[in-house]
Design brief:
The complex is a heterodimer of chains A (115) and B (114).
Chain A: E1 3-5, E2 10-14, E3 19-21, E4 24-26, E5 32-39, E6 46-52, E7 60-61, E8 64-69, E9 74-79, E10 88-96, E11 104-105, E12 109-114
Parallel strand pairs in A: 2-12
Antiparallel strand pairs in A: 1-4, 3-9, 5-6, 5-10, 7-8, 8-9, 10-11, 10-12
Chain B: E1 4-6, E2 10-13, E3 19-25, E4 32-38, E5 42-49, E6 56-57, E7 64-70, E8 73-78, E9 87-97, E10 100-105, E11 109-113
Parallel strand pairs in B: 2-11
Antiparallel strand pairs in B: 1-3, 3-8, 4-5, 4-9, 5-6, 7-8, 9-10, 9-11
Classes of the chains: A mainly beta (115), B mainly beta (114).
Chain lengths: 115, 114
């Protein structure tokens, strides 16, 4: 079974600052993928970034980067230069490799960007 | 771009009513999923389907059923709605991105059962 833990129910960050959202996971699968999704107040889930467990380098997508530490089983999301529009709920998720199968989600972190 | 459309953004239903939540996708994907989202609990999988007329239970199937008569449409059914089914419901399709799963979500349906 796979498990995702997000220990920060809420975070505040000032505009233009960087913020790290924590995610730890547990799995017995030798190969897996890790994802981050953003959910604004409107409700839609927006894909941000993903990391394969076998990838040598940490994933980056614009202002988003994933700090992947396999030995620690952590996959933290780093948002650089925060913007007001980054205020949202953020979910970490993981899924199996090689099949478009189930994803396991964390409980989410609500990020509030302040002036 | 993949498009997943849920028929309603907001629904209010009475206890005991039969409720249908519809989800349509336009990308010919086999795998479709229904989640519910509750504060502090994240997203939990209710049911999923890998093909037409196929369905599998997720983590919290009690009180729900599903129907997949056509590949593009996956319906979630609350046979007799109860107040504890008040929640946000999200439909998703899953596809492979490289070697890993990626989920594309509908806009969500906020269901209130009174």
């Amino acid at each position: 079974a796979q498990k995702i833990t997000q220990t920060q129910p809420g975070m505040f960050v000032q505009e233009k600052e960087a913020v790290t959202l924590d995610c730890t996971y547990d799995t017995s699968d030798p190969s897996y993928g890790l994802f981050w999704y953003k959910q604004p107040s409107s409700g839609e889930m927006i894909f941000l970034i993903y990391q394969g467990s076998y990838d040598q380098q940490n994933a980056t997508e614009g202002r988003y980067s994933l700090n992947f530490q396999k030995a620690r089983k952590s996959a933290n999301l780093v948002i650089s230069a925060s913007q007001l529009g980054d205020s949202a709920m953020y979910f970490c998720a993981m899924g199996p490799t090689g099949t478009a199968s189930k994803l396991t989600f964390g409980t989410g972190t609500r990020l509030q960007v302040t002036l | 771009d993949v498009k997943v459309t849920q028929s309603s953004r907001y629904l209010v239903k009475r206890t005991g009513e039969k409720v249908f939540l519809e989800c349509v996708q336009d990308m010919d994907h086999e795998n479709m999923f229904w989640y519910r989202q509750d504060p502090g609990l994240g997203l939990r999988l209710i049911y999923f389907s890998y093909d037409v007329k196929m369905k599998e239970k997720g983590d919290i199937p009690e009180g729900y059923s599903v129907s997949r008569e056509k590949k593009e449409r996956f319906s979630l059914i609350l046979e007799s709605a109860s107040t504890n089914q008040t929640s946000m419901y999200l439909c998703a399709i899953h596809s492979l991105r490289g070697r890993n799963t990626e989920a594309f979500f509908g806009q969500g349906t906020r269901l209130t059962v009174v």
